[in-house]
Amino acid sequence: MAEAHRSGCPINLSVEVLGDSWSLVVIRDIMFGGRRHYRQLLNESEEGIASNILSDRLKRLTSDGLITKAQDPAHRQRQLYSLTEQAVQLVPVLVQLGNWGRKFLPASPELSVRAQLLDEGGPQLWEEFMQELRVIHLGADPAAGAPSVMERLEKAYREAVASS
Amino acid sequence: MAEAHRSGCPINLSVEVLGDSWSLVVIRDIMFGGRRHYRQLLNESEEGIASNILSDRLKRLTSDGLITKAQDPAHRQRQLYSLTEQAVQLVPVLVQLGNWGRKFLPASPELSVRAQLLDEGGPQLWEEFMQELRVIHLGADPAAGAPSVMERLEKAYREAVASS
DNA sequence: GATATCCGCTTGCACTATGCAAGCAGTATC
DNA sequence: GATACTGCTTGCATAGTGCAAGCGGATATC
């Protein structure tokens, strides 16, 4: 049988799934950092996650339906992690969380630029970004046109790093 | 000296402060549930928090600047917990988190009504609600006029319970 | 004015999660 | 054929969680 939940409150349920020190950080790295493999997530982690914790979180996120795992066609032993639609829809949560951290916690300016841009862009920009994530992770059809939100976020970040 | 942070990323910093099983649930109870004392938070907790954990979280949230503690003027030994401005500004985070849980997790309809209402109301309603929280917790001047957002949320919840 | 109850916690203890370091078998590279 | 990279696992010490019971002081009840 399925695991019992503490309550049916939507906030509580979200906390049960996401409320720990690492889950959202791993999702952030896959979503904004473009990390797709285990070693990438392990070695390029800003915060220095431990290998056993990463392994455990990837398993839990998979069984919770937030990420999927597939063999990388290029390298046989390499596993490719992708976000699911459920995880893509965490964008508004991560934006608000980033915005709050930016306002009240000692966030570094370079790393705050992206959060600020996403905050100022509003729901419309979030949706645009989510659509890009669907292209990358879920194989959705790309929408031709303006420079991607991901590129704009990267550009702003690089400029912030350069001028710091 | 102050504790070191894992990184300056705003999302990571928020996770460091809020990323555990109970912090956001306690804040939710104070914010939406109107719980202001220890016993209330302990006994009326939907999820059944343990007393030592509640004690620890209240201390941590206090030292993180999210809540304050004061003697209740009515009862000498009773302590009154209040939200700070920093916690009030968690409203958008909690709304998005509730909305996500409502969409993807087995949330009960009664408890989802408030999340839905806040989602549909958008940033304008959130700001209105935040202003009410400032009146309740920070002693701000009340704005006379329409029925409060808190009352509207309560009404929708009661109706949902009645019709279930 | 004695008794019982409520107040915000604390303590003890078992269990689980976390963090660190090392290791491992199966590719891929040179 | 040696070396390094792949996604992990294992062992172990420490920290956090969950449960039950208790505690001194303040308050309500009779």
From TrEMBL, chains A, B:
Transmembrane segments: none
InterPro entries, alphabetized: HTH_HxlR, WH-like_DNA-bd_sf, WH_DNA-bd_sf
GO molecular function per UniProt: DNA binding
Superkingdom field: Bacteria
Xref: Pfam families: HxlR
Keyword Glycosyltransferase: no
SUPFAM superfamilies (UniProt xref): Winged helix' DNA-binding domain (SSF46785)
HTH hxlR-type domain mapped to chain residues: 9-109
Keywords, comma-separated and alphabetical: DNA-binding, Transcription, Transcription regulation
Name of the molecule in the record: Transcriptional regulator
